């Protein structure tokens, strides 16, 4: 353990990790965090321009450099690090330990992909590991974990308010042999990329069920199934996000066998809640990594000798010194929120940690949007162009406010849960008043009304 501590003290990989987290890192985690740091710094960041050049040659084909890096990462034991250690397929990290890795991965948008730790693969693999039968795992989980194909999660719909998933309406007719699917979906990764080979689909199979939480079913639909058609790719804030993209789909009499149902008919909500917690944390940690890159770019700009408005370096202006301070403190604060959520999941489980998860999902994207925006501002006109990765960082941060559920829905859930505690606080206030009245009587004073309670 001492060797690990010495390594942490002398490594940039651990420079931003709070002491209380370092104290919980096991030797295996220390090793993996260092490996991921070295991987991103030496293999991914220098290759950012290579990736873009190769992608321009074919927008819907994964660049060759990604395939090369994936082979190297797998050989180094850097695959599937996200899968928590309570799964038999896990490499062995806790949610807290992996969060430290995920932040580093976020420094390059596609770095997580080189380690098979990218969305939606992380959520889909965890779903399949948690809920599938051994045969289903053989067919879908193992190829995904091996990096032989990619997948999509298909939940959002264009015709309903999908933030309330009870509204999901794509029709699933379950017969004695198969499931027949009809309807429309948004956001599943693009069929244009041949590596995308299956959808994990949530649909309505029992619309007359008295419980809205038992009307839906989750199943696997192979991407090339007859009747499944991609209408177009959806741009996000003007970006096509190739080579994965976000498709709009029509299901017209799509037929899949009964054995493609996961867990059982009517259990989609159970599955969805089990899937979403860790994925939200992964998004937020990667976003912190992107914010760190934005902060570093801002620092570089501050001391750029060619940029001297009114004869001063940009970083010599008091307003920019204060801006840098605010950016630094915001990133550090958001990191604590996400690490707390990850630790809560480890200690109490995803369901018990839903407040901490929601807190991360609400606060982190909003706060880090501001950080990235400030970095763009310090670059002036260049900050809005492809001269830096800042516009793409900002767009991803804005997207995360909606991904896995809009933050307004999470705020409502948090507020609703807190309102349930109001009765208990009311009772406590009444006890305070009762004791106050007793003290008034003791000291010969006339009680006054306060807090609306006499």
UniProtKB/TrEMBL annotation:
Top-level taxonomic group: Eukaryota
Protein name, per record: Acyl-CoA dehydrogenase family member 11
Organism of this sequence: Lindgomyces ingoldianus
């Amino acid at each position: 353990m001492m060797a690990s501590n010495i390594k942490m003290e002398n490594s940039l990989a651990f420079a931003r990790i709070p002491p209380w987290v370092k104290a919980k890192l096991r030797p295996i985690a220390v090793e993996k965090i260092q490996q991921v740091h070295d991987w991103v710094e030496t293999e991914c960041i220098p290759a950012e321009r290579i990736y873009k050049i190769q992608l321009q040659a074919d927008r819907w084909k994964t660049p060759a450099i990604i395939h090369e890096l994936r082979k190297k990462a797998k050989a180094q034991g850097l695959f599937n690090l996200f899968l928590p250690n309570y799964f038999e397929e896990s490499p062995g990290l806790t949610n807290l330990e992996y969060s430290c890795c995920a932040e580093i991965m976020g420094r390059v948008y596609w770095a997580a992909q080189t380690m098979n730790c990218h969305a939606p693969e992380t959520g889909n693999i965890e779903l399949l590991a948690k809920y599938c039968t051994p045969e289903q795992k053989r067919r879908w989980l193992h190829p995904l974990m091996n990096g032989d194909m990619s997948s999509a999660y298909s939940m959002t719909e264009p015709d309903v308010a999908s933030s309330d998933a009870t509204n999901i309406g794509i029709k699933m007719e379950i017969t004695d042999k198969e499931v027949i699917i009809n309807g429309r979906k948004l956001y599943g990764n693009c069929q244009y990329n041949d590596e995308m080979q299956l959808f994990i689909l949530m649909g309505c199979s029992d619309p007359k069920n008295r419980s809205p939480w038992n009307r839906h079913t989750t199943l696997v639909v192979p991407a090339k199934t007859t009747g499944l058609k991609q209408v177009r790719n959806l741009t996000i804030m003007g970006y096509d996000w190739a080579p994965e993209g976000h498709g709009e789909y029509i299901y017209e009499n799509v037929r899949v066998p009964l054995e493609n149902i996961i867990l059982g008919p009517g259990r989609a909500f159970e599955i969805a809640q089990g899937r979403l917690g860790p994925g939200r944390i992964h998004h937020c940690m990667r976003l912190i990594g992107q914010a760190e890159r934005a902060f570093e770019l801002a620092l570089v700009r501050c001391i750029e000798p060619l940029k001297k408005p009114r004869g001063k370096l940009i970083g010599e202006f008091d307003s920019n010194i204060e801006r840098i301070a605010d950016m630094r403190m915001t990133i550090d604060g958001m990191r604590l929120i996400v690490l707390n959520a990850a630790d809560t999941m480890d200690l109490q489980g995803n369901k018990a940690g839903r407040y901490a998860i929601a807190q991360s999902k609400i606060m982190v994207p909003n706060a880090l949007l501001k950080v990235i925006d400030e970095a763009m501002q310090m670059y002036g006109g260049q900050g809005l162009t492809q001269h830096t990765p800042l516009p793409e960082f900002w767009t991803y941060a804005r997207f995360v406010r909606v991904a896995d559920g809009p933050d307004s829905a999470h705020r409502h859930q948090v507020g609703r849960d807190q309102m349930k505690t109001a009765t208990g606080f009311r009772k406590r206030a009444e006890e305070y008043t009762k004791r106050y009245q007793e003290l008034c009587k003791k000291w010969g004073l006339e009680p006054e009304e306060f807090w609306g309670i006499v």
